[in-house]
């Protein structure tokens, strides 16, 4: 019995979803014209769908698990469980007004007409701030609505902000910070639970590997104390004597986000010949 996984057919989440499966050793190709595809070497079957339909499919158990943006998930309010965040597809649902319009607080939206593809999340925000505004639901190209006189403001997904900028809009509020998440049907039979457990284990190993780098460096023995203090404290680094008297080679793992600061500090402490290597998998 295969675990059925729903991913976006073509769009912003497709490539990263396939890449994640591939990095987990699950061989699936991008969909092409196909709507479903079986992995060659792992008991999963992939369904390629519109992202909007994924929460419903998983709720209904037509798919067992799925990869979808939190924005879509929370807008649709389906009864599915979030298994884990995936760290890609990052964006935010934001309110934007034509540049030059003053905005201080949500009350300034009173009486406005706001265009959005996220009526539920927008309504929640307005209700929370006790604002009465008209929601105009459109399915795409929301950002042009004020320019063509369809609305006073928009509530739309933003990543860099350049689309808003090009349309003369300025972001004034963030309603939701979003990323892709793995979701699952509430109940699965034991066989599928086992496949899902394996998948989650692999995803965690891939995520840990992406967040860390393997570092090798050479240092004079009298600088090792400082160098150890700069490296993560949890486990001690590996230290090997070099052929050259009085020098050692030090191996350790560094988190990506501390990386550049640490490299500078290590160099200043006397480290030389620093090599940084990507980690393929990290088993936790
Ligand atoms: P579909 O045809 O599957 O319905 P779509 O046009 O609704 O596709 P995409 O534009 O491909 O969707 O976006 C898919 C998801 O990617 C969004 O729901 C969101 O979670 C995420 N995303 C990340 N950055 C952005 C962005 N700048 N704009 C829109 N979505 C983004
Ligand atoms: Mg969509």
TrEMBL record:
Q: Could you say how this protein's activity is regulated?
A: Feedback inhibited by histidine.
An example GO biological process term is:
L-histidine biosynthetic process
What's in the keyword line of the UniProt record?
Answer: Amino-acid biosynthesis, ATP-binding, Cytoplasm, Glycosyltransferase, Histidine biosynthesis, Magnesium, Metal-binding, Nucleotide-binding, Transferase
Q: Which cofactor does it need?
A: Mg(2+)
Write down the Pfam families for this protein, in alphabetical order: HisG, HisG_C
Q: GO MF terms on file? A: ATP binding; ATP phosphoribosyltransferase activity; magnesium ion binding
User: Which catalytic reaction applies to this protein?
Assistant: 1-(5-phospho-beta-D-ribosyl)-ATP + diphosphate = 5-phospho-alpha-D-ribose 1-diphosphate + ATP
Task: Specify the enzyme's EC class, one word.
Answer: transferase
Report the residue ranges that make up the ATP phosphoribosyltransferase catalytic domain in this protein: 50-204
What is one term from the GO cellular component aspect held by the record? cytoplasm
Task: Name the principal localization, coarsely classed.
Answer: cytoplasm
Protein role:
Catalyzes the condensation of ATP and 5-phosphoribose 1-diphosphate to form N'-(5'-phosphoribosyl)-ATP (PR-ATP). Has a crucial role in the pathway because the rate of histidine biosynthesis seems to be controlled primarily by regulation of HisG enzymatic activity.
Could you tell me which HAMAP family the record lists for this protein? HisG_Long
User: Which family does the similarity line name?
Assistant: Belongs to the ATP phosphoribosyltransferase family. Long subfamily.
What is the official name of this protein in its record? ATP phosphoribosyltransferase
Q: Which organism is it from?
A: Flaviaesturariibacter flavus
* Gene name as annotated: hisG
